[in-house]
Design goal:
Elements (H helix, E strand, L loop, with lengths): L3 E8 L1 H5 L3 H11 L2 E8 L3 H7 L9 H8 L4 E9 L1 H9 L12 H5 L8 E3 L3 H11 L13 H4 L2
Antiparallel strand pairs: 1-3, 1-4, 2-3
């Protein structure tokens, strides 16, 4: 299968508290992506500063840190054909008001500051983010038995 890659998808504290994470897992699974790692965790400031290093100079950065530390995060890794691009499409626009119905943000969020979910924006960032949130031994290598029914 060509273009198989991995992405990091995190259900943010608002999505966990609102109970939206089962729907996120369902959508990615039904789309045909394989779950490689999953954990419910409390992100500490050190991890979040590394994860959001590109945003540290933005005026909203302190509130972003506070929000991300406010409750559990469901961290996941998914594998599949073009999963980074497809995952971002499934999430919808960063500003939920610009997200199409049928996307996760379009269906469940109204405010950019409470937009439910994070998804890697490139293969390179996915590798970095997966490495920040998971140890190598936490990534499960397995053969997806349904792969022949999903991919040509």
């Amino acid at each position: 299968m060509s273009n198989t890659e991995r992405t990091f998808i995190a259900v943010k504290p608002d999505g966990v508290q609102r109970g939206i994470y089962p729907e996120v897992l369902r959508r990615f699974t039904q789309r045909g992506f394989k779950l490689v790692a999953i954990k419910l965790t409390l992100a500490d400031e050190s991890l979040l500063r590394k994860h959001y290093a590109d945003l540290q100079d933005k005026p909203f950065f302190p509130s972003l840190l506070s929000y991300m530390k406010s409750g559990p995060v469901l961290a996941t890794v998914w594998e599949g054909k073009d999963v980074v691009k497809q995952g971002r499409s499934m999430l919808g626009a960063t500003n939920p008001l610009n997200s199409a119905p049928g996307t996760i943000r379009g269906d469940f969020a109204l405010d950019t500051g409470r937009n439910i979910i994070h998804g890697s924006d490139s293969v390179e960032n996915a590798k970095k983010e997966i490495g920040l949130w998971f140890k190598p031994e936490e990534l499960v290598e397995s053969k997806a038995t349904l792969a022949s029914w999903i991919y040509e």
